[in-house]
Structures are given as structure tokens and as C-alpha cells.
Amino acid sequence: MTYADTKRAVSVPSLIWLAVIAAAFLAAILRGVAPIDLALPAGVAVFPAVITLLFIFGIHKEWVQILVLLSWLALAIVACLFVGFMPLAILFLAAPIMAALFRQEKIVEALVMSVILAGLIYFALIQGAIPETPLTASQILWATQTGIIGLIALVVGTLFSSAQLRNNDLLKATAEGDTNPTDCEALQGSVLKFAKDGKLVTANLEAQKVFNIPSLATPVTISSLLEQDKTEQEAFMSACEKVRDSDQSWSTRLSVRDEDGNVTVLDGYVAPEKKGGLILHAIDRTAEESRIEDLRRSHAIASRETDDKTLFFAGVSHELRTPLNAIIGFSDMMRSRLFGPLPSKYAEYADLIHDSGQHMLDLIGDVLDLSKVEAGKYTLQYDSFDAADVIRSSVKMIRPAADAAEVRLDVSVDVNETLIVEADRKALRQILLNLLSNAIKFSDRGGRVSIKAAANGGYLVLRVEDEGEGISAEDLVTIGTPYTQSASGLSSEERGSGLGLSLVKSLTELHSGEFDIESQLGEGTQVTVSLPLSRAT
Fold it and tell me: What fold characterizes domain 382-532?
């Protein structure tokens, strides 16, 4: 605190004390008390405040502060001797109260003196060593009331002055850019303050540990903190210059290597201070950086594995399709009796070989297409066409399977309405074939599968319904997940791979469309696919 601050702080409670004495004196006169009767107690009461104000210009000196405290102790002693120990013994608190405006040591000194003197006065009174008071009853009453009220006012004034002193000290520290080391410790991370010349002024314990600062007494500069990495040192020094030039905070990335070679990665924030100083606030990001690096490695490994899987499926599909095509071709020749009749049993076997080979070929196609979608390598070939034509051709392709399963197909497409859509024709046919084959597979003999198509709100809405076993609510959640089948699918005689609906969902999403499935056990299943009529841009 400055001399001017202390002078003002001590003056305020003294002036308040004098104001209370003056007010009490005036009030007593108005009640009819003769001024001469109050002259003595009033004169004694104003004595310490007058002494304080008389020596206020030397209040920063040690002997003046002691004189002020002794004057307030003298007031308490006189009051107890001439008015009575109780209740005016509380005036012994006046000296410690005033001492709060000086250094902290003065509070302890004043308190000790007050306790000792109060004890001596009390002992002298109970021993009868002090003669009776010469004051009248009205003087004693006035002194008692005024002393209590005055002390309360003195406490209030001192609290106000003390708060003002602390506020002034805080404002001064802020204006000058002073940083208390204990304040630095309250902040998370490393906090370092540098003077205008770049020398370290203070640093918290975390900063000393991270930046390998053995002692604050050791000369440390901004540039020496990052001398291990010249590139980062230059970037950091550039950030410091930008802060000085713009008078605004600047962020930068730092890395510090300890004696064991371990690297600490930090997010640094450089802020300006008064007088050209700088504050560096650095947060340790080593753990986060390590997690990010692990994620990068995991992503790279996953991407590599996905690429390998795609290549594997492509290779396997090529290798399998060649012999499968031969098997399907030869079995088809046998079924058609191209080289003569076959015994009935062999003809049945030829049909089974042909159907199984075709089923395997379809599965391989689904696996390969789904792997391409997952790898992001399935490219849609957009074309503008009438979806009704694709629906009718798909129904023709699937009808033999429906007839074999004794399932009726109902197609609801308005012949007068053209469903022009901008999409991938092959993908749309694959969506329809998968939905229809799935519905037929899980329909009972004599059941019905309906296909409806209409344009609604800028979308081509395809809906396939069956009257099969349906799907439970638990299994419905997993539908669309690759290689996952419902309980009805697992119990079906025609087991699948679980890829059909997953591929439908993926192809729909590639078109920026929507996939929805509704089903209940025993009531069949309804799958709705909505594709934009126009290509999404």
C-alpha cells in the first residue's frame, strides 16, 4: 500500500469517530444537558482521533503508528477508570481495530497491549486501588452510550478503509502486471511470466517441472525454453512478437523434451501484460495427442484391412464365378436333355446342382457389392429412366421363384403414371430383387407378396409387403446389420447370408434415400424404400 492510501484509510475512521462524538454532544445539549457538564468526557473522547489526525502526515512512520495506538489505549484506560469497567472495557478493542490499517504485526502488538492493560485495570478495580469516579450520573450515562456507539462506528469505518486498501492494492497489481506465484498455482497447467526483456519473472510448480526449470533464481529466457527444437522456438518467438505488436492473445503448439527423452506436447496461449511483459499459459495435451495418434493408426490399419478385404472378395469372387458358371452351364445342359434323356433321379440332381450354383453366385455378388459399399468404392451410375419398367422386369425375373414357392405376386403400379427417376438402374433392380426374394423366401405356401410404387413428395416410394411369419421387436433392431438374421430367418428351410436387407439399406443410403421396416410376429413384414426422384446435389 502507498503512503497516500494509508493516510486516507486512517483518516476515515478517525473522522467518523469525531462525527459520532459531535452528534452525541449536540443531542445531549438538545435534551437540556449543560455543555459544561459534557466538556470533560467529550474532550477525553476526541483525544485519540485528534492525535491521529494531527500526525496523519507521518502515519507511515513506526513511532507515529505506535503513538496512535497508545492514544486509543489511553482512551480505554481513562473510560474504565472514570466511567466503569463494564461496559466500556470494549474500548480496548479500538487499538487493534485501528492497527488493522497498518502492517499485520501491529494488530498482534495492539491486541497484546490491550489485553494486558485491560487485565491490570480490572485487577486494580476489584482490589479497590482506584478511587471512586468524580463524574455525575448524566456524564457517566452519556459517556457509556457514546463510547459503545462510537466503537461500532469506528469498526464500520475501519472495515470500509481496509476493504478500500485491498481493492487499491489489487488494482495496482493488475495495472502493473504483477503476478502472485500463489495465483499462478490456482490455474490449471503451466503458467510463466516474462518481463519485457524476455527474462522469466515467475512460474508455478507445474511450469518448473514441465520446462525443466531447476530454480526461479536461475536465469531463464523465452528462447531458452525451447532450445531443443529450433523450428518450434522460431514459431514461439514469432507468436510472442505478434502478441506484442497486436496486444492480443495468441495460441501456439509447443513440445518439450525432458532429460529422459520423453516429449510433452502443450497447447500454449501467450497473453500480453503491462510494461511489455508476457504470460505463457500452457496446457498439457500429451495424453490427448497420444489418443489421437492411436486413432490415426487404428484408422489406417482398418482402412488397410478394408482394402485387403475388398481385394480378397474381388479375387475370390472372380475365382469362384468361373467354376460356378461352368457348373451352372453344364447342369443347365443336363436339365435341358441336350445330349439325350436322363434317369429321373439324375434329372432331379441336375436341377438341384443348377439352383444351388445360382444361389451361390447370387451370394457371392451380394458379398462383393456389400464389401464395395463398406469400403466406399461402390460407385452409382446415375441415369434417368422409368422405374415402372425396372419394377416389371424385376417381377418377371422373380416370378419363377414365386411360382415354385406357390406365392402370389401382386404389382400395384399405375400404368398411366410414369415414374421417372434419376438413380442407378442396376442398384434399383438389386434393391427390388433382394426385397422380393426375401419376401418370397419367408412367405408360407399360398401367401401373397405385394409390390407398390408411387411418386410422393419428390420421392419414389417402393413398398414390399408379405404375409409371412414376421419379425420380433428384438430382431427388428438388428435388421440391416450385415450377416445378421432374425429368428424366422434362422428357422427357415432356405437359410440366407443375412446380407439382403443390409445391401438394400446401404444402396438406399447411397442414393440419399430412406429405409424403413415394420413387422410383427405372425402378421408379416413391410419394407419401404424411398429414393429421391432427382439426384441429390
Answer: Heat Shock Protein 90 (3.30.565)
What one-letter code names the amino acid at 171? L
Segments of the chain assigned to CATH 1.10.287: 299-374
Do residues 328 and 356 lie in contact, with contact meaning Cβ atoms separated by under 8 Å? Answer: no
Rounded Cα gap, residues 259 and 183, in angstroms: 29
pTM value surpassing 0.70? no
**Helix, strand or coil for residue 260?**
coil
Q: Residues for the chain: how many in total?
A: 537
Across the beta sheet with 525-532, what order do the strands follow? 408-412, 448-456, 459-466, 525-532, 514-519
Give the CATH number of domain 181-284.
3.30.450.20
Mean pLDDT of 290-298: 86
267 close to 280: Cβ distance less than 8 angstroms: no
Ranges in the chain annotated CATH 3.30.565.10 = 382-532
| Residue owning grid cell 481493492 | 167
Span 46-76, pLDDT tens digits = 999 899 889 888 888 888 888 988 998 888 8
Q: In whole angstroms, what is the distance from residue 136 CA to residue 40 CA?
A: 11
Joined grid coordinates for residue 258: 525432458
| Residue 82 clears pLDDT 60, i.e. is over it | yes
Instruction: Considering the chain, tell me which residue range(s) the CATH 3.30.450.20 domain(s) occupy.
Output: 181-284
Helix (H) or strand (E) segment spanning residue 466: strand 459-466
CA torsion 422→424→425→428, rounded to 10°?
-100
Express each pLDDT in 415-450 by its tens digit: 567 789 999 998 898 899 889 988 998 888 889 999
Q: What is the mean pLDDT of residues 226-232?
A: 63
